[in-house]
Specification:
Layout: H1 11-19, H2 21-36, H3 42-56, H4 59-63, H5 77-82, H6 92-106, H7 113-122, H8 125-148
Helix pairs in contact: 1-2, 2-8, 3-6, 3-8, 6-8
Length: about 160
């Protein structure tokens, strides 16, 4: 771990809450809002989230599976996300979510007209904005946890 945590303190709560309460609590609320208020389908949501987790290398994020209405994606889903270009496990919206996540994280300057034509053929503008904000949350906070070394010991409240 790359920050010192006082004995007896929950590392994630200490770093996100106690160390920088004016920033950390707002960040935590943003992160939780992505899950609480999403309108995206579970498969496209998880394809984008897992692709960011794979790129970030956040151990906790890689292990996490979003549950909605007592449903989770199948066990093999993460492998399909890594192979989003060729898998036959995805419909076009799910494939685009994984592609967008990868390009958002690694080549946002390369998001060209051809890509946006495909995106807008399958996603509304509201869905694109929601997905983009979600990607930003996952990229920033998953990377923060990985860089600070919190990802190996991170346990979200209630998980």
């Amino acid at each position: 771990m790359n920050v010192d945590i006082p004995e007896g303190k929950n590392p994630i709560e200490y770093v996100w809450g106690d160390m920088v309460p004016g920033i950390g609590l707002a960040a935590a609320n943003f992160s939780l809002s992505v899950y609480a208020h999403t309108t995206l389908g579970l498969r496209e949501f998880e394809a984008a989230r897992l692709r960011i987790a794979q790129i970030n290398g956040c151990l906790f994020c890689l292990d996490w599976r979003t549950e909605r209405d007592e449903q989770k994606v199948e066990e093999e889903f993460a492998d399909a996300v890594a192979e989003w270009r060729t898998t036959d496990a995805f419909d076009e919206r799910t494939r685009l979510a994984a592609e967008y996540a990868e390009r958002y994280a690694l080549d946002h300057h390369g998001l060209d007209d051809e890509f946006w034509d495909r995106m807008t053929a399958h996603y509304s503008q509201t869905e694109i904005v929601e997905l983009t904000m979600s990607l930003g949350s996952w990229l920033a906070f998953g990377r923060l946890n990985r860089v600070l070394g919190l990802d190996a010991i991170c346990v979200l409240p209630g998980h």
